[in-house]
Amino acid sequence: MALFHVARYAGPxxxxxxxxxxxxxxxxxxxxxxxARERQQLQEEPGEAxxxxxxxxxxxxxxxxxxxxxxxxxxxxxxxxxxxEDAGAESSxxxxxxxxxxxxxxxxxxxxxxxxxxxxxxPPAQSLLLGDFKRTRAPKVQPFLPAWLAEPSCVSRNVTExxxxxxxxxxxxPDLQRRLRAHGITSFFPVQAAVIPAVxxxxxxxxxxxxxxxxxxxxxxxxxxxxxKTLAFVIPVVQALLQRAVCRVRALVVxxxxxxxxxxxxxxxLYTDAxxxxxxxxxxxxxxxxxQESLVQKTADGFRCxxxxxxxxxxxxxxxxxxxxxxxxWHLRFLVVDEADRMIDSMHQSWLPRVVAAAxxxxxxxxPFALLQRRQPQVVTAASTCCPQxxxxxxxxxxxxxxxxxxxxxxxxxxxxxxxxGLAGRGPSDADGDSGGKYTFPTGLTHHYVPxxxxxxxxxxxxxxxxxxxxxxxxxTNSRENSHRLFLLVQAFGGVTVxxxxxxxxxxxxxxxxxxxxxxxxxxxxxxxATARGIDVRxxxxxxxxxxxQYLRTYVHRAGRTARAGNTGQAFTLxxxxxxxxxxxxxxxxxxxxxxxxxxxxxxxxxxxxxYEAALSELESAVxxxxxxxxx
Length: 632
Ligand SMILES: Nc1ncnc2c1ncn2[C@@H]1O[C@H](COP(=O)(O)OP(=O)(O)OP(=O)(O)O)[C@@H](O)[C@H]1O
Hints:
By secondary structure, the chain is an alpha/beta fold. Among the domains are: 147-361 and 390-420, P-loop containing nucleotide triphosphate hydrolases (Rossmann fold), CATH 3.40.50.300; 445-629, 3-Layer(aba) Sandwich (Rossmann fold), CATH 3.40.50. The longest helix is centred in the N-terminal third of the chain and has 31 residues, at 14-44. The chain is globular and about 110 Å long. Keywords: ATP-binding, Helicase, Hydrolase, Nucleotide-binding, RNA-binding. Residues 460-608 form the Helicase C-terminal domain. This is ATP-dependent RNA helicase.
C-alpha cells in the first residue's frame, strides 16, 4: 500500500544511523574534494589531461547532470539515472520524482536492517512524497453562461441600413408616432424596433398588472454607443404611463452622472410635454429643498405626488428616499438602469436595495388595506396569482453590459431577457473582470492609433486639429491634472478654441461648457472620463485618447462619443511604445475592427515647434502661479 512519507526527527534509535550517515557524508566530501582537485589539474594542463583521460575523461562529464539531482545515491544508482536521462525517459521538470521512479522501476536494494540503501532518495519507493507537485498546465475554464445570456435576442447594430419605419411598429401609439415625426424621427433604429414592442407587450394588460396577471420579465439591452437606447425606453415608458389616472412615481430612471441624467430627462420632456405626465430630475444640481418641491406637495391631508417619472443619480435618490416626506415609490412600475454595468459598479452605495425596500412597503406597511398593496414577490403559486399586484419591472441598458452572471445577480433580475447586438459568450476576460470579445462598435467608427513619445503628445493633438482640420474634437485624459495642463498648454499655444471638462468645475459650469461645445463654440474639449459615457453631442468628428484608456469598457464609451446615430467618426489613440502591444491586444479581443496605424512624422510637427516651446514656458509660469495661489 502506498504511504505518505514526511521526513521528521526519528528519535534516539536513529542516533546510530545518523553517526553512520555522518561517516558517509565525510567520505562523500572527501570524494568531491578529490574530484575538484582533478578538475583543477585538467584546467591547468588541458591538452595533456584530455589525452590521458581519453574516452573515460569525456564519460566522466556526463553524469554531472545526474549529480545535480538531490538523490545523492550510490555510484551504481547514479549511473542508472544517467542512463535513464540518455534514453530521454523523463523531462528535467520532473527530475526529483523521476529519480525515485527509476529506483522503483529497478526495485529497491535494501540495506541490512530493512533501511533503504545508501543514497536512495528519502521516502520509501512505494510512498507518495508530499508537496511533490508536478507543473501541469491547468485547463482553461470556459465561462458557462445561463441560457438567457448565452442565447440573447439578436439585434442588428447597423443603424443606417436596418431601419424600421415607425408605422411598421403598430404597438406605438399614433400620438407618439406623430411626436416622433415632429422631432425628425421617421424610422426606428434596430434596437428600438426590438425593445419598444417587448416593453409595451409586458404592459399590455395595463401597467398595474403583468400580462395574464404574471410578473413580466426584466429586460437587458446591450447595444453599441449611439444606437438609440434612450428612446428604446423613453417611448414605451411614456406610452404605458399615459393610461394613469393619478400622479404617482411610476418610473424611475437611474444614471451614473448628473449630465447624463439631465440629458435623459430632456428626452422624456420632449415626449411628455403635451401629456399630463410629469418628469422630475433629482441629481443634486439644485438644492434638496428645490428638488423636494418638484417631487411632492404638502396638502391638508398629507402629500401630493408631483412626478410620474423621476430621473435620478443614485446618491441623490437615496437622499430623497431618506429625507423627503411624502416621497413614495410604492407605485413604481418601471425601474430603468441606464449605463447598467457602471451602475452595478456603484452597487456598494446600496441604492438598489433602498429602492426595492421603498417600492415594497411589505407587511404592516403604511397602507395596509390598499387594493394594490405590494409585497416582495415570492414563488408563483395558484394562490399568489389570485391576488395580482403591480409588478416592478427592471430595464437595463448599456453599450458594455457585463456578461458576468455574478454581477448581474446583484440586480435581482426576474426571468431576464437579453437583447444584444454582440455575439454571446465568446472571448476571454477583460482586465476589469468582465468578459471581453462581445462589445460591438458603431459601424461608422474608424479606429486609429498614433505611436508617439510622451513629449510629443500635445503636438500630435495640435497637429490633428490644425493640420487635419477637425472642427469638433473630444480629447480624453486619465486625470483631472492631465486635462488641466493640456488645456493650459493648448490655450497658451493659441489658434484653437479650447475648454476643459472635469470635476474641477461646478455642475453649472460643466453644463454651460457642454452647451457651448454642442453649439460649436468650442473646437476642442479636453475631458476626463466624466463625458465618456452616454453624453450625446452631435457632430463630434474626432475622439482623441490623449492617455490610452486602461480598460476596454472605457475605450468603447470614449470612442462612442463619435460616429453616433449612423454618422461616421474617427477615434485616435496616442500610444507610447510600451503601451502598444497590450492596447492592440485588448482591442483585438474586444472585436474592434483593425486599428489603423497613423504615423505622424517629425517633419509635420516641426513647424509647430517654436510656438509650442513658447506655450510650454507659459504653462510653466501658469502652473507655478496656480500653486502659489493654492498655498496662499
Ligand atoms: N430612430 C432614430 N432616428 C434618428 N435619430 C435617432 C433615433 N433614435 C435615436 N436617435 C439619435 O441618436 C443619438 C444617439 O442616441 P442615444 O443617446 O439614445 O444613444 P445610446 O445608444 O444611448 O448611446 P450611449 O450608449 O452612448 O449612451 C441621439 O442624438 C438621438 O437623438
